[in-house]
Amino acid sequence: MEKIENVAIIGLGLLGASLGMALRGRTYRRLGWTRRSEVRSWALENNVIDETRDDIKELLAKADLTILCLPIPRVMEYIETYADCWKPGAMVSDIGSVKEVIVNCGEKFLTPLGVNFVGGHPMAGTENSGPYAAFEKLYVNAEVFVTKTDNTSIEALNHVKEFWESIGTKVVVTALREHDSLVAHTSHISHILALALTEAVLDCDLETLALRYSGCATGFRDTSRITSSSPSMWREIIENNQTAVLEVLKEFGKRYTNLSEIIKNKDYDKLEAEFAKGKKMRDAWMEYKKG
Amino acid sequence: MEKIENVAIIGLGLLGASLGMALRGRTYRRLGWTRRSEVRSWALENNVIDETRDDIKELLAKADLTILCLPIPRVMEYIETYADCWKPGAMVSDIGSVKEVIVNCGEKFLTPLGVNFVGGHPMAGTENSGPYAAFEKLYVNAEVFVTKTDNTSIEALNHVKEFWESIGTKVVVTALREHDSLVAHTSHISHILALALTEAVLDCDLETLALRYSGCATGFRDTSRITSSSPSMWREIIENNQTAVLEVLKEFGKRYTNLSEIIKNKDYDKLEAEFAKGKKMRDAWMEYKKG
Questions:
Q1: Which of A89, A95, A90 is nearest to A22 (CA)?
Q2: Hey, is the C-beta of A172 within 8 angstroms of any chain B C-beta?
Q3: Which of A110, A212, B41, B212 could lock A115 by a disulfide, CB 3.0 to 4.6 Å apart?
Q4: pLDDT by residue (tens digit) across A4-44?
Q5: Domain A6-174 has CATH 3.40.50.300
Q6: Is B194 on the interface with A (CB under 8 A)?
Q7: Is B259:A245 a contact under the CB 8 Å cutoff?
Q8: A248 vs B: CB within 8 A
């Protein structure tokens, strides 16, 4: 395929609808579909997509590139259910937070039909979800992981890369396990921590709770922010990345136990050195992010 | 004392300088002092304070209310060093993040001299520090803890309450231990978590680090934000609140282990229920904060 014309965005939640918005004014024709017909109408009326149909199959048949912007189990379900709707040579990608289970599924059902599956994962999101939480700049400066396996078509990989780069993201090509271990560290673990923190602070009797409400300020607000994310989404992500998540839980546990021991031993010079090391590491990452 | 006229702000870092800014246009005369003379000049030139002196003692002698905006060890050092500078009937308060050690020190050195010490702790701050990080709205909607002990003068307590309320904060009166246990939960523990997370994610070999940099996005940014706070400040806070911090470390550890076990056992329905519970608890707190 020389040039992508029709891009199908399947699923118009936070990520799908924001993708449609980010593509405004670009050369692609945006075909959009989501289960609820009122959201399809909303997306059409608000210049989130250019075209929709009641029947998803009609859109998939037209699509040069399809981005499945769905929860992980739905991505796999749609690949299997609609495998024979895509035309040979078409490209299918997704935005799922884990890649091994999804890409294995994509290659299993699509590769034999001559349809190219290339896994994708933009590091973008907020604690909100749904189409009405979408905004045009969600992907600006985000990093997007695009996966490469022994079966990946290099031509399709390059098309998917260029697609994401066209909306101002930075693409990083990874292998499947490398990706899943990476995001367990950089993202999934934080959701377990934020949850455990929220429980340790707010899961108490009502009298204590009133006082705790007063004592929680911006530090708690930010450290716990992602606790407000979608429970079903995070269940699905961890369910589909258990091995890597357990490894990082262990790694975090080691660090946490070490700091606890330092405090128990009243070795405050060491504690200050750890705080200084952490600050230096995080500040360096922030500098990198600012670019 | 019927009315507070002269308020001395001792220490013009983030909290002290922001306090001076918050008092702009109020009826108090702001006397300000900090170690570095160039910061005293900056504060005077930028309407952060109304008056300063080279000699701190001259300011303390004039002050009806002094707010010690200093690191915890300095608060205690200044109380002891300058105890006989304040006039009898004057009030002294502070902004330290722990209260038991500070208030005990204040009552030990000041009460015998007829000077009223009332502990204070505004729940306000950012990961930045120093005078040039200060801003006028730092305290807006913040909660401020003011301490009450058997030795506290009710008149002084009320003056300190009114002072903080005059700049738009909400005052909560607490006992010393109650306060220190509370903030160990709502604030101190988050700093240990954020640090352990930063280490688990960024303390690795350089090749891995390059990839981790790509994989860290807004979730990591916010969960780890307070890792960028002042290492010496957080060392001092935890050093002076060890008992309560160790209790909360244990409490968090229990929650964390429980979640880890749920994931180990692949009990994902239970995990989703925990995510939902956490979201509900945090969202309710956010609603409370919005007022």
A1: A95
A2: yes
A3: A110
A4: 999 999 999 999 999 999 999 999 999 999 999 999 999 99
A5: no
A6: yes
A7: no
A8: yes
Of A129, A115, A133, A275, give the one whose Cα is nearest residue B234. A275
The domain segmentation of chain A, as residue ranges, is 6-174, 179-290
Q: Give the total residue count for chain A.
A: 291
Of B130, B134, B165, B132, whose CA–CA distance to B18 is shortest? B134
pTM of the model: 0.90
Instruction: Report CB contact under 8 Å: A220, B186.
Output: yes
Listed in sequence order, the DSSP H helices in B88-230 are: 100-110, 154-165, 176-183, 189-202, 206-215, 218-223
Which value does ipTM take for this structure?
A: 0.91
Q: Cα A38 from chain centroid?
A: 25
Q: What is the CATH number of domain A179-290?
A: 1.10.3660.10
Q: Are A92 and A116 in contact (CB under 8 A)?
A: yes
Nearest by CB to A268, which of B203, B225, B239?
A: B239
CB-defined contacts A:B, below 8 A? 295
Buried b (16+ CB within 10 A) or exposed e, B254-268: ebbeebbebbeeeeb
- Residues of chain B contacting residue A142, judged by C-beta atoms under 8 Å apart: 217
Which two tokens mark A176?
């499947």
Alpha helices (runs of H) in A28-169, residue ranges in sequence order: 37-45, 56-62, 72-82, 100-110, 154-165
d(CA A124, CA A290): 16
Note whether B191 contacts A219, CB cutoff 8 Å.
yes
**In this structure, are residues B95 and B15 in contact, taking their beta carbons and an 8 Å threshold?**
yes
CA pair distance B154, B160, nearest whole angstrom? 10
> Mind listing the pLDDT tens digit for each residue in A126-143?
888 999 999 999 999 999
Contact A235 B275 (CB under 8 A): yes
Rounded distance between C-alpha atoms, residue A238 and residue B266, angstroms = 10
Beta partners for residue A94, in sequence order: A68
